[in-house]
Amino acid sequence: VALAIGDRVTAGGLVLCWGLGALAGYAGYVLRGGFLPWRGDPRRWPARTRRLAGWFTGTAVVGQVHTSAVTFLIGVGLSESAIALFRMVQVTVLQPVQNFNQAITSLLVPRLSKAAVMAKEQVNVQLRKVMPPLAALAVALVLVGGLLAQLIFPLVPRYADAAPLAWPVLLQAAVYMLQAPVLAALRGMHRGPLQFLQY
After folding, report:
1. What is the pTM assigned to this prediction?
2. Arithmetic mean of pLDDT, 110-126
């Protein structure tokens, strides 16, 4: 807001604000929770999490390589304006759903981890509670989001050609939304190899 008011919006300034937002969030977490990072012993972390951290790190690497490969292949096959439209649709349509999925996963993993300690059936009970509302939300996301995109994108002449891209990207977002509880269950049950295989 300060950059916009001062008419000084630049790419570097926005990245700086993004980083400052993350720093503010971390500082708030430390101050409210009282968790001081220098009190811990980082040497214990690799020893206690080696098996899971290896699988989760491998999964993250596969995800990043996949994203980079798709971006590179799109760059080879499309014009600059087509790439810009594709990225704009990804940011406006897919990114909010990804953020929502991250929040869902963060909320579900502790609950599913606790259920996994009790019994596998408890995990299934939790998943059966979460999946129907998420499925309804995924369908609504595709239908409502797709229709809104057909109305809103053409209002900005530079983005009019992006409207058809909204449908497949929304479908991708809906699949991710349905996948989030399953990934949370795999993480909660400490099934790193299965999550890696799924990725």
Report:
1. 0.70
2. 79
